[in-house]
Design a protein that fits this description.
The protein is an alpha+beta fold. Helix content is 33%, strand content 28%. It has one domain (26-217). The chain is built from seven helices and eleven strands. The longest helix is centred in the middle third of the chain and has 16 residues, at 67-82. The protein is globular and about 45 Å long.
Length: 218
């Protein structure tokens, strides 16, 4: 069963099956403006939230990162863990204390690398990206080859709830994502899973997400 959601809800589509319900929403604070990129939010209802940004290596064999956008990812992870108005967010500068403050690992880069015509995909937490970059804006893919979490490992970690922030109130999530989109002008595809999908591959969901985003952008 597939149906559209009422206008007062963020969901643009709801897909209902025997063992799961998948709801889909797009968050873009500046509609009508050219977006700077797209991110994926996976939500396992009442359990975990996971934020992923995919990045493909350039033709020169290097990854280039926008450091301001990376800072906003750090802020987003803190907000998803503690809430935007929490005492921790008001007291500490996460640019100084991060990752000393104990966070649930929530924001990851999905790195797509190419070497000898073979593709390698790994997941790295944003703290690992920051450590590798230091004060640089770009780095060779050699820093990440054969490092990080493999797709099947990442899938298992998500479904066993060993990564990701605790789920939040729906309105709080929507507001947090809206302000992140406002600051970065990135579009967010929000995939809300209401029941366990028998450990459906996150890679498959990411492929669906990228297809929806490409159709929307085009």
């Amino acid at each position: 069963m597939e149906r559209k959601i009422k206008k007062d809800k963020p969901w643009i589509r709801s897909i209902e099956r025997e063992r799961y319900v998948l709801r889909i929403a797009f968050i873009h604070a500046r509609r009508g403006e050219h977006i700077t990129g797209a991110d994926l939010l996976f939500e396992l209802k009442d359990k975990k939230i996971l934020f992923i940004q995919s990045k493909r290596v350039g033709a020169n064999g290097r990854f280039t990162f926008n450091r301001l956008q990376l800072l906003k990812l750090v802020e987003l992870e803190a907000q998803l863990n503690f809430g935007r108005d929490s005492m921790i967010m008001q007291t500490f500068s996460q640019t100084i204390f991060y990752p000393i403050i104990p966070f649930q690992k929530t924001a990851f880069y999905h790195l797509v690398m190419v070497r000898s015509l073979q593709t390698q995909e790994r997941f790295s937490h944003i703290s690992e990206i920051m450590f590798t970059l230091d004060n640089r804006k770009s780095t060779s893919q050699n820093e990440f080859l054969n490092m990080g979490i493999k797709q099947d490992e990442f899938n298992d970690l998500f479904w066993s709830c060993k990564i990701g922030a605790p789920d939040l109130d729906e309105e709080l999530k929507k507001d947090t994502l809206y302000f992140y989109s406002l600051a970065t002008n990135r579009i967010i595809l929000w995939l809300h899973i209401e029941e366990k999908i028998d450990r459906l591959s996150l890679h498959r969901l990411m492929m669906i997400g990228r297809l929806l985003i490409s159709l929307m952008v085009d």
